[in-house]
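Q: Please design a sequence for this.
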């Protein structure tokens, strides 16, 4: 039996697992590839290589949608795969787990994360949960017990969490469906409209990573890709400029910034004063886009704090909570099901 402590962050696009004693963590795509509806032929990063490339008899699916587990059987297989990977090919039973769960979801949806581990072959000794936004705050190095208000924006794949935290509790939380994949869709649409060419979401994501710059005077860059000509359906090598990408992503980001401003306007005055002093903590994978912090700061009038490796802020927080008893009050066990 293992006495290891594991931190788990299950997102729409990525799954992250940490092992406390070794100080290691794994981050891979949260995707699985199934052939003929029954034979698993790829997990995580390997399966992601098949995304938008697989034949009709191979389904490449993401078992989490909008931060909610939609296919628990597939999610369980991915969990066991990544658990074996961090333990060098072994299923070590009896571990202790802390799982980050989406804040703005129902108790039933949260409990699904608990049951995912409880009903797996991992045979966990204990399973606790922590609100994702609380883990984010700890991952930012915020004094979570302080009465001062802190404002966090975590831009994930399908959703963005906008949160105000004080005294270790969530004062305001909004989960909105404007996030990384919405930005990718905007790039797909922009290339279709301006170039009359079709590209996939994976190519759009690469264009976003390589070219997107939210600054006022971004450097002009280009990237060569393969696309399909709409009029003929034939593949072609083409060059996409950063001008197209920047305009598309900025147009998609602005409604998110409007929602951040609305949340700031609804924040209690004393906490709002703290936020003006402390700034906005910007996290999540899309927070890595060049100058996105500068755009948020310009549009909100509040300085933005960007951490190194913002995509892993949640798993950092979960692991920190695991490693210190002073954070025990942040953990909880979900309520049991009630039957009428």
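A: Design:
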């Amino acid at each position: 039996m293992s006495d290891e402590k594991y931190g788990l962050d299950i997102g729409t696009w990525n799954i992250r697992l940490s092992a406390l004693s070794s100080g290691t963590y794994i981050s891979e795509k949260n995707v699985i590839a199934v052939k003929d509806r029954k034979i698993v032929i790829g997990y995580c990063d390997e399966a992601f290589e098949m995304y938008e490339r697989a034949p009709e008899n191979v389904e490449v699916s993401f078992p989490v949608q909008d931060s909610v587990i939609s296919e628990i059987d597939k999610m369980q297989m991915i969990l066991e795969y990544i658990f074996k990977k961090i333990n060098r090919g072994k299923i070590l039973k009896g571990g202790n787990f802390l799982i980050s769960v989406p804040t703005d979801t129902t108790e039933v949806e949260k409990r699904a994360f608990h049951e995912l581990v409880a009903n797996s072959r991992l045979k966990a000794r204990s399973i606790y949960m922590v609100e994702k936004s609380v883990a984010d705050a700890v991952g930012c190095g915020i004094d979570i017990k302080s009465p001062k208000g802190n404002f966090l924006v975590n831009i994930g794949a399908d959703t963005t969490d906008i949160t105000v935290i004080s005294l270790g509790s969530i004062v305001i939380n909004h989960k909105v469906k404007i996030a990384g994949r919405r930005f990718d869709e905007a790039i797909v649409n922009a290339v279709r409209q301006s170039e009359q060419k079709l590209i996939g979401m994976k190519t759009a994501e690469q264009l976003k990573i390589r070219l997107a710059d939210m600054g006022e005077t971004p450097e002009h860059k280009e990237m060569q890709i393969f696309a399909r000509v709409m009029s003929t359906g034939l593949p072609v090598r083409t060059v996409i400029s950063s001008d197209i990408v920047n305009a598309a992503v900025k147009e998609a980001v602005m409604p998110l910034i409007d929602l951040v401003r609305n949340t700031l306007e609804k924040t209690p005055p004393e906490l709002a004063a703290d936020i003006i002093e402390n700034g906005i903590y910007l996290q999540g994978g899309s927070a890595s886009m060049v100058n996105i912090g500068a755009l948020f700061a310009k549009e909100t009038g509040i300085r933005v704090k960007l951490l190194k490796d913002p995509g892993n802020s949640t798993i950092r927080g979960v692991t920190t909570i695991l490693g210190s008893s002073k954070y025990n009050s942040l953990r909880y066990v979900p309520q049991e099901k009630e039957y009428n």
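Q: Thanks. Anything notable?
A: Residues 242-266 form the longest helix (25 residues). Residues 95 and 124 are 5 Å apart (CA to CA).
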